[in-house]
Amino acid sequence: MQQAVVTEQIVPEAWTLYFPDEEHSPDDRRAVLVQDLLPRFTSLTRWLADRLQPQQVTGRHRLSIGYEELQNVCSSFEFSAALDLQPVEALACLGAAAHQVLFSPQAQQLFPEGIEPLKIVVRLEGHPSSMRHIRQLKSSSIGKIVSVKGTIVRISAVKPLIQCMTFTCTRCGGEHQVRFPEGIYTPPTGCNLDGCRSKSFKPQKKSAQSLDWQKIRIQELSQADKEEAGRVPRTLEVELTRDLVDSCSAGDVVTVLGIIKVLSTDAEAGGKGSKGTAGKRSLFLLYLDAVSVVNQRGANQSCKDTTDQISQPVDHLPSHQATSFTLRDLHFIVKFSQEYKGQQLKQLVHALCPAIYGHELVKAGVVLALFGGVPKGNDDLASVPVRGDIHCLIVGDPGIGKSQLLKAASAAAPRGLYVCGPSSSSAGLTATVVRDPLSGAFALEAGALVLADRGVCCVDEFDKITAEHQALLGPLEQQEVCVAKAGLVASLPARTSLLAAANPAGGQYNRAKTLLQNLKMSAAMLSRFDIIFVLLDQPDQRRDERLSEHVMAMHSGSVSTRNTDACC
């Protein structure tokens, strides 16, 4: 009975925080859902307190909860159904229930330093059933909760977004407080105080209540769906608010959980002959209102120990270099090292692009570049930092298989990009500043080197982009792209290994000339590469016979092991 009385006293206070425009009613579906979650959360008070992140400055407390973990400790069918149908109300009810439990008198002992009962913003993470590809987001997804994974290609500056403001009537002096849903500026249309029907208002800018707002653009992963190969990668606009701003940078691979919403574009499709509303279409842009953002770069800092993750083998590595292995990966590594003891490198070399005959030394260099090295001197200001990524250049006659090696390397890398030189620009390889067509603000857009951060970037026909070589000198050595355009000065991480393939200037490599004369490349650009391979197409009857046997075996479907053994 005592618990019921406490609930009746606290519910109106929490209700005014989470549903300020709605009157409280015990029969309301939101009140029923809160009452359903209350007894479950009462027994999990310490579990909620451990996941609460007090933020007194922003005026909101953050509660990060994993969906699967929430279902394990307190499964609720009503909440799951509400999350699928009305995700905004479901998250608000979850926050209201947590607010009543955490800020009750019985839970104050869990916060020895004291905590102010501010509104709790729930950051729900890990909702597997809502995972979608960006190409699958259609009109049926509006208002639904979805999870998408992609690479951040554009990020804007943080701006204040007005939520509510007080307006003063210019005739009677009455004050009207107006809320702006979704941040859309909607001033009052008329004054209804004491019969005043004035339509002129003056905003009180000092009374404006705002929150931090940032917009990013994510692009679907190139290797996420093999069926989409050859099509233009889809992009999606994502809006970050409050504590989610500045949680990621351009080039990061993130998993965003949010709610699909629409934004009107007021696009006209009737041409010059259209008049008034005739010939206009109601076009909308889909965007994602983020609920939580899981950055793959910093996932190891916040992830908890689960049954399918083994973190002990990489505890000695820095947090940004640590890798989470599943049990399946660990079992394969152990089995592989035991079965091919002393020949691990040979097996990896043969596994890289087996369709290309020979070139074991080149493949070994590519494999080592994929593994990379260890950076040194980054934390010591007195020493010179040495990058750990290996840059490799393959020079050779046409028809050797350089492009196939690059494609195989980009496919084998967990994070790899393949670009062709003639169709790339310096801005496309590094970074650029673009103007947002809707807001008019400038934003950073990442290039290939930034998108391949902590991975490998393969550039084919490298000799055809001599004009862009000057823009690559700094990123290849300093491992970052520095941009200073349109008043924006930023440094984007580009910690990637560059694998480049180039053809000789005369069509065939001339052994009488030096490497610089064959490539017509600057000495500064050539010095950025740690390994340079020169492949020559020389006539050799014995080798040509083995190459023919290898090609016939590959097309006939049989496996020929004699050629690989003979070349090692």
Question: Your description of this structure?
Answer:
- Strands 4-7-8-10-9 form a 5-stranded mixed beta barrel. Strands 12-15-18-11-19 form a 5-stranded parallel β-sheet.
- It has 568 residues and is of the alpha/beta class.
- The N terminus and C terminus are likely disordered.
- The chain is built from 18 helices and 19 strands.
- Helices cover 29% and strands 25% of the residues.
Question: Which helices and strands, and how do they pair?
Answer:
Layout: H1 2-18, H2 29-42, H3 45-51, E1 52-53, E2 60-66, H4 67-73, H5 77-85, H6 87-102, E3 119-125, E4 145-156, E5 159-169, E6 175-179, E7 201-220, E8 235-241, E9 253-264, E10 284-295, H7 299-302, H8 327-339, H9 344-351, H10 360-371, E11 392-396, H11 402-412, E12 416-420, H12 426-429, E13 431-435, E14 442-446, H13 448-451, E15 456-460, H14 469-478, E16 480-485, E17 488-493, E18 497-502, H15 515-519, H16 523-526, E19 531-535, H17 541-556, H18 562-567
Parallel strand pairs: 2-3, 8-10, 11-18, 11-19, 12-15, 15-18
Antiparallel strand pairs: 1-2, 4-7, 4-9, 4-14, 5-6, 5-7, 7-8, 9-10, 13-14, 16-17
Helix pairs in contact: 1-6, 2-6, 5-6, 9-10
